[in-house]
Amino acid sequence: MYSEIVSHRSTAAELAARRPKAIILSGGPKSVYAEGAPTIDPAVYELGVPILGICYGAQLLATGLGGEVARTGSGEYGRTALHRAPGGGGRLLDEWPATGEVWMSHADSIVAVPTGFAVTASTDEVAVAAFESAERGCYGVQFHPEVVHTPLGQDLLKRFLHDICECRPTWTHVSVIESAVAQVRATVGDGRVVCALSGGVDSAVTAALVHKAVGDQLTCVFVDTGLLRAGEADQVEATFRRQFGLDLVHVKAADRFLAALAGVEDPEAKRRAIGELFVRVFEEVAADLGDAGFLAQGTLYPDVVESGTAHAATIKSHHNVGGLPEAMNLALVEPLRLLFKDEVRAVGEELGLPEEIVWRQPFPGPGLAVRIVGEVTAERVRILQAADAVVVEEIRRAGLARELWQAFAVLPAVRSVGVMGDERTYAYPIVVRAVTSEDAMTADWARLPYELLERLSARLINEVAGVNRVAYDITSKPPGTIEWE
Ligand code: XMP
Question: What total number of domains does the chain contain?
Fold first, then answer.
């Protein structure tokens, strides 16, 4: 289903101009009565477009149409039993069991529904867990159908979108490819396009799409910073030069990056040094190419949404390999800007990219530099690459690669004393980091089996020279971040 995320500040007229068939008001952390709590243009309720309010969205809907929300002291968090109303579950929940399981997360509760609305479900704690007026086309659920912990949540969304709003699931990866290819052709004409390839899935799919659209009008630039995972540079060569026959400029710049990082320990300073040098190298190549008028970038929809967020704090300045400055005088081509990661992967598979690229776990733009805590040196990069390869291989063997959001090695530049073969050692530890996550905004440390941790410990110490200790990071995000820097 094609969907867009828009600001709650959009006016009803702006929304109507997008011709939506359905509107979903999402959840949020505020109380509807709090100062600065997000509200919507009341005229949205009069557009005649069906609305589903979820959690905060349901409370907004309730108060917006004359109902009441209060802090009753009966908040609910986590798995909760939902009872369909004795009078029936209405249009949204009529096929739900009398009692089902849902995921809740709210402090305030809806205590009165607007006139003309029916309560369609409750819980042991709250009287209004779902309400609707099919006549007005407005539906509200206090629980979260969008999370996996609500087993029938996807059915609820289908009921709303397919049956109530009559949306058709036509947004498939094939239709996405066709429209993206047509758009790239229309934008580029017979111009030349450059694309920065990082080896990650986003830039790889971007390159494959643009190549499908304009063939040899595309030149890809792969900057080997020396801070990549083991084997990554070869893989990019094998896929793009040999399989796709693409015009690929492979810049070997490891020495320049190491020089730029010499003596740099501060994480933000590292990120800046890498970002700046990357841009400089890329500019040199683009200047050599001469006539390029377009720059293809793997910007995804979440990046587009996030850059519209006014008050987000800078936790880390993200360096995206595609994130080159506009001052380069190249017009941007962003064929993935309407897609989420899972859609990008489906498109990549459809385009024939190898599984190892399509399903590769996310990797930070600054590469291994932000997984070496302390100064980046050639020796530390070598140790970390070897250690990371062991982690990746063991995770793959255990069949966990797709289940985990990321699994990798970190090298804190401290040394500790050990004993091996009756000899004293004084070497680095490797920290294994493995997390589960839906979107990297939050993450949980993965409960890896002890046997796997034991194998990792043995292999890392036996096979990677310079390592004598292994630790497992059991920090979630928050309070940690996924990467160490
Ligand atoms: P953190 O460490 O902030 O990471 O929890 C969240 C996700 O983003 C990835 N990451 C980056 N990706 N450029 C990127 O393209 C970056 O500078 C960068 N830093 C972190 C990280 O691997 C995780 O998936």
Answer: 3
